[in-house]
Automatic annotation (TrEMBL):
Originating gene: yitL
Name this protein carries in UniProt: S1 motif domain-containing protein
Residues annotated as domain S1 motif: 153-213
Source superkingdom: Bacteria
GO molecular function: nucleic acid binding
Family annotation (Gene3D superfamilies): Nucleic acid-binding proteins (2.40.50.140), Winged helix-like DNA-binding domain superfamily/Winged helix DNA-binding domain (1.10.10.10)
Protein family: Belongs to the CvfB family.
Amino acid sequence: MNFTPGTVAELRVVREAPFGYFLSNGTEEVLLHHRDIAEPFDPEEVQTVFLYQDHQGRLAATMTIPEIQLGTYGWAEVAGLKEKLGVFASIGIRKDMLISIDDLPTHRSLWPEKGDRLYITLQLDKHGRLFGKLAGENIVRSMAKKATKEMWNKNVTGHVYRLMKTGSFMITDGGYIGFIHESQRKQEPRLGQKVEGRVIDIKEDGTINVSLLGRAHEEIDRDAERILAYMDSRGGKMPYWDKSMPEEISARFGISKAAFKRALGRLMKNGTVYQEEGWTYRKEGQ
């Protein structure tokens, strides 16, 4: 029986080498390097190992058995990337698995970064080389939980697993599928990025809609802090007020005119600032 990378095998030690042990199934041999041996190790016993290809492309064995194998799925952390190849994800063994550039977003800015997490399996290419493969939509939906109405307005965290023109799909830490419409985010998250949002709808199929935008009062607070920080940098005043042009507001603060007016209105109501002839001033002592 031929060895298959990405699978677990029960093998016996047939000989020792200066750098490890050679294991065999009776017809083929594979090296178990000292660095891949887990303690305790008894050369007389049958060894349960995971088969993979080392950095030189040679078949190797490890006593570390990963959750992610041929035909099984799990979360893998992104360990690095190569521009012309793709990203490398750790499955818990010494060799990271390449996820091809063909499986990644067209825009480089949306590629996973180190520390992001991807839900993947392992596959063999036509040359028998082992690589990582993103889970398809059918796999994700088969392992997902169905959300209940009680989740409405709850905060959720999770990782983005699919990007579309209209928005992003995420898997929450609780195992629910969430959709983030493009209108419910300030910028498009990366594939594999961890995001935090709130549930704004529960669909009949048990999936949820998620917003990455803060609740109204949270957004006002953040916008007000941004306005005050800018004013403080200019000695407590700024050449903007509630009649400033939307383009000016967007260019300076990165928010809409409506959001600017809401935040400014709150600051004026609590007596922090006042307006005069096209300028906004911070009151002394506020």
